Structure of Magnesium and cobalt transport protein CorA:
Amino acid sequence: MLHIYKSSVDGRIERVPDIMRNTWIHLVTPTDAELHKVSETLHVPLDVLLEPLDAAEQPYIIRRGELVLIVIHVPILQAEGEELVDMPPYRMLPLGILHLRDHLITIVREDHPLFHAFFSGRVSSFATHMKTRITLKILSATSQAYLTTVSRLERMIAHTEEELARTYRNPELYKLMNINESLLYMRTSLKQMIFVLRKIMNGGYIKLYDDDVDVLEDAMIELEQAHDAASVHQSTLTSVMDAYGNVIQINVNGILKLLTALTVIVAVPTLIASMFSMNVPLYIEDYPHGFKVLMAVIVVVTGLFTYVFYRLRYL
């Protein structure tokens, strides 16, 4: 969809029907017709508009004349609860921020809650002609989203560990594996985004004022904090998965040892009874206490095997 916003006289952000000077063009899952309309109206190469729509696009910043394209990643929730068995809880969504002379364009493959605060008025102190200010606020909101996501993943890990401690089931391990995958994607994206922010701060990609530098530094600090927290959680989670995997393996081995011991113990009386129940002459068949003797032998031999397995800690 194509959304066009412009600041009103009283400072509110309002939707307008057509692209005009100092407007913010927001493309969400755009159609080919919408992409061609923006490309032809603003004379932007179509391939530039298509780059942020690639799900595999990595964060970067480039300049082409007066055009500056910034691609970042924002975390988006895709699974929770029992769905964690099949897929990671979060994935990274590419977001493109395009600076033109008199326009700002944001491009995203699907709707993200990050922009709701901007268009609903919850984010203030900006106007649609303030391309740098809007960009920095998006970067700041993204860094906050990463910190929130890391906290949520931490709670997911704690909850899954509690379930795993009670049940030792495979689904809980799959959940931890998928959470670990989200942390891996997040670490990669955060590292690349920190590099992009450093290029913005050190290079001449967009004009920065004194207040803008402070906002950018705060966003970079938050991204670094999120990266460090994700790294710690991933390292801890890897150790936890290895530990629980070993515990499950030990439990499985214990069950197999128990079943083996029980099988041997049950096989002993079965074997003795089978030998003396064959349809052939036996030397104790005429003995009046033969059955009692046979039962005593079974009890003694079975007890001996049980004692041996007990001493070997199979029981």
